[in-house]
Write a structure and sequence with these properties.
single chain; five-stranded antiparallel β-sheet
Length: 182
């Protein structure tokens, strides 16, 4: 009987690992994934934005999120209509008439910028770390067949959250320097 309960516990913990990683992947796909892909330049350039004006953008709480620009978007694909669009977290405060190659995601235009890499990279890290820590703890439980202490995994997740912010900042600074130099 004891072996059956232990086997059932291992199976449930293994299913928990798969579910935790699946939910993390799905949330990455739904939340910051498309924007992060557009910022990092995955895929071909979708079109060009002719900048009309740039301004300091703020989030819902009023905190500055970088420079946004509005402009006229001309897509590269035939059959797609030109339209007004927002260039989210632009790399620079562009002058009127500047043309910027962009990739689009969720109705907004994106380009490689330090602020965008920091925003979306940090969001991705803060989203993934708790799920990865939970999956690691569940995997340890599945390996041993008992409920493991979660103290170390909790500490690792806190360190991971801090590391996500630091790595996002470092990546954003490096991209900002790279876009300024090149």
């Amino acid at each position: 009987m004891r072996a059956a309960v232990r086997g059932l516990g291992r199976g449930l913990a293994g299913v928990g690992v798969v579910v935790a990683l699946g939910v993390a992947g799905w949330l990455m796909w739904v939340l910051p994934g498309p924007q992060m892909g557009a910022v990092l330049g995955f895929g071909p350039v979708d079109g060009v934005v002719s900048v009309h004006r740039c301004y300091e953008a703020a989030d819902a709480e009023g905190y500055t999120t970088g420079t946004d620009c509005t402009g006229w978007y001309t897509p590269r694909r035939p059959g797609e209509a030109a339209r007004e669009i927002v260039l989210d977290t632009a790399a620079d405060e562009y002058r009127r008439g500047t043309e910027v190659e962009v990739r689009t995601a969720r109705g907004r235009a994106y380009e490689l910028s330090g602020t965008a890499v920091f925003n979306f990279g940090t969001a991705a890290g803060l989203l993934l770390v708790p799920f990865l820590a939970l999956a690691a703890w569940l995997f340890a439980c599945a390996r041993s067949g008992t409920v493991e202490s979660g103290d170390g995994y909790f500490l690792v997740s806190l360190v991971g959250l801090f590391a996500a912010v630091v790595l996002g900042a470092v990546a954003g600074i490096l991209v900002g320097i790279g876009t300024a130099v090149f």
